[in-house]
Structures are given as structure tokens and as C-alpha cells.
Design a protein that fits this description.
alpha+beta; 4-stranded antiparallel β-sheet
Length: 335
């Protein structure tokens, strides 16, 4: 009696492929997430470019350049959405099979026997910021090599489609985005205090400013590394990973390569300020902003005592933006 149901169940047991169209945002961008456990960064790729420019066998994370097939970049929400679609498909398949078997059974009944009728029933550290601010925080990029369009809230350097490093060309855009975000800090506090409360407002702005500080350091690191790679003598110069996060070491590299270090491009006061700001970012990233003796020794900042937590305000972020932009402009002269 359940021939259709049994056939469909057997097919389901053998495995079936279901095509799922993932939803995109109002600008046609598709949410993506790096599948590397050490990264897990979220970003967006224009839906059209994800289909036309991104290869099925190889996609690059814009933040860490991890490589994986196109099937490995779904967000947790998209995975749950796909599961719901699959369950709905199975439910519909079973419901349809039961309905067809019921109709066939009903048609097979003959007069003179007891009539039986069958039927089937019917077949179910986030930062709170205003929407306009979130749009400003999200940078949009166009790969200068393949034209792929993508976006990220954090600093992004690598094209998802071809892996090209765009740190040099996008550096100025990152600086300007940070400046715009910082300029909104006061209005963000007021908006969130009205919509929620003072604690949420203060915490959200604090996280936003600390994130901006980290974004500037990361952007300068990637910019200076990519620029250094363009030097003709770079192959003979040994350097460790992430060396461009360290101002003293990276300055020595430039001096060895082009005859001038950061001390020749910034004043002593500016260089000391930049070192202190880099140390602030390091402390936030690795010690949740809690001051230790190493921070005091390396930064020369005597305004804190051990155990205090750093306070990052708008002026601190804007000063770092000014310094990294000035030093980046000086470095461009050598390439």
C-alpha cells in the first residue's frame, strides 16, 4: 500500500543533492565566514561575483588568506538555514508520497466491501552600533586584478577570488574609514544610551575604538610588508613572521634595505608616540588592556600603574591614524 513512500524513503537513504539558494543582503552581497579555526572572520562577496569570479576549488580569506573550496565558507546561520531547507524537502517528499499512496489506495476500493478512506494532514564581543554606523564601518573593496567585489568590517587585504594582496592600494581607504567611524563616536553614545542604557553605550563605543586602533596597526603592518616585498633586494633579507608589527625591527629592515629607518622619517617625539600606541594595541589584543611592567617599559607611558586598564578615546585613535599615514607616505618614496 505504501509503494511510493517506500521507494522515496529508499532514495533518501541513498543520499540526494538539494540545491539551496542562500539569502543575500539588500545590496546583493552574500555573507561568508573563514573556515580556519584560528580566524573565523566574517566578510561579504557580491553574489554575482561569487558565482562568476570565485572558483569552486579555491577561495581565499580576505583577512588571513586561508584557502579552501567554495563549499567551506558558510556562516553558522547559513548552515542552519540549509539544514532547515533540507528537512523541509524531506518532509515534503514524505508528505507527497503518503498523499499519492492514499489516493491510489482509495481508488482501489471496490463496492461491496467496507470503504476505508485515507488522508494526510498539512505539513515549519558583538558590538551594538546603529545601522548607519555599521554601513560606514564596512569597507567595500574591488580587486585591482580580477575585479571581484567584496566587503569587510575589519581590515581586509586579500581578494577572495584570486588571492591578490591589495594592502597597498586599500591602505588610504582604511585610514579614512577609521576616521569616519571615530567622528561618529559621540552620536553613537547618545543613540545607544537612548535606545538601551549608558553601560551598553559606553561598552560599545569602547570596543569600537579599540577595534579601530587594532585595524590601524593591522593595516600598517600589511601595507609596509607588501611595500617591502616590492624592493629589488628583498629576497636576500631575512625576516620573521609579523615583524612589521614591531616598529624597532621593521625600521631596521628598511634601514638595511634602503638606507633609512623610521627615525629618518618621523621626529623622535612622533616615533615614541607611535611606539606607545602600538604597545597599547598589543596590550588590548593580548592582555585585555590590563597594564603590566612590560607595557610601561616598552611604551614609556608613565600615566598608568600595573593592573590598570587602558582607556582608548577618540584622540588616541586619530593620532595613530595620523602617524601611520605619515610614515606610510614616507615609505612609498622608496618603492
Amino acid at each position: 500500500m505504501f509503494d511510493k513512500l517506500l521507494r522515496d524513503l529508499k532514495q533518501l537513504e541513498q543520499g540526494i543533492k538539494i540545491s539551496v539558494d542562500l539569502p543575500h543582503d539588500e545590496e546583493e552581497y552574500l555573507d561568508r565566514q573563514c573556515s580556519a579555526e584560528s580566524c573565523r572572520a566574517e566578510f561579504k562577496v557580491l553574489s554575482e561575483d561569487w558565482k562568476e569570479k570565485v572558483k569552486d576549488e579555491q577561495v581565499f580569506c580576505p583577512i588571513c588568506r586561508f584557502e579552501a573550496p567554495a563549499t567551506e565558507w558558510n556562516t553558522e546561520e547559513q548552515i542552519e538555514y540549509a539544514k532547515r531547507v533540507a528537512i523541509a524537502h524531506v518532509q515534503k517528499t514524505i508528505h507527497t508520497a503518503l498523499a499519492e499512496d492514499a489516493r491510489r489506495f482509495n481508488r482501489s476500493q471496490r463496492p461491496g466491501f467496507i470503504q476505508l478512506s485515507m488522508s494526510v494532514g498539512p505539513t515549519p564581543h558583538s558590538i551594538v552600533v546603529p545601522t548607519d554606523v555599521a554601513k560606514v564601518m564596512r569597507q567595500k573593496f574591488v580587486c585591482e586584478v580580477c575585479g571581484c567585489r567584496y566587503a569587510s568590517v575589519g581590515a581586509a587585504f586579500f581578494c577572495p577570488a584570486c588571492g591578490h594582496n591589495s594592502a597597498i592600494s586599500m591602505f588610504g581607504q582604511t585610514i579614512e574609514t577609521v576616521r569616519q567611524v571615530v567622528s561618529m563616536a559621540t552620536s553613537i553614545r547618545e543613540t545607544l544610551a537612548t535606545a538601551f542604557d549608558e553601560d551598553i553605550a559606553q561598552n560599545s563605543v569602547r570596543h569600537m575604538l579599540e577595534d579601530s586602533l587594532g585595524r590601524l596597526v593591522s593595516a600598517f603592518q600589511q601595507f609596509s610588508e607588501a611595500l617591502f616585498e616590492k624592493l629589488p633586494s628583498v629576497a636576500s633579507i631575512k625576516r620573521r613572521k609579523n615583524v612589521f608589527q614591531n616598529l624597532a625591527e621593521s625600521s631596521a629592515l628598511w634601514k638595511n634595505a634602503v638606507g633609512k629607518g623610521y627615525e629618518d622619517m618621523l621626529s623622535p617625539t612622533e616615533l615614541q608616540e607611535m611606539e606607545s600606541l602600538f604597545q597599547k594595541r598589543h596590550l588590548i589584543a593580548h592582555r585585555n588592556g590590563l597594564v603590566d611592567q612590560e607595557y610601561i617599559d616598552k611604551s614609556g607611558d608613565k600615566s598608568y600603574v600595573i593592573g590598570q586598564r587602558l582607556v582608548i578615546n577618540e584622540s588616541v585613535v586619530l593620532r595613530l591614524a595620523e602617524l601611520v599615514y605619515k610614515l606610510a607616505s614616507e615609505l612609498r618614496r622608496f618603492v
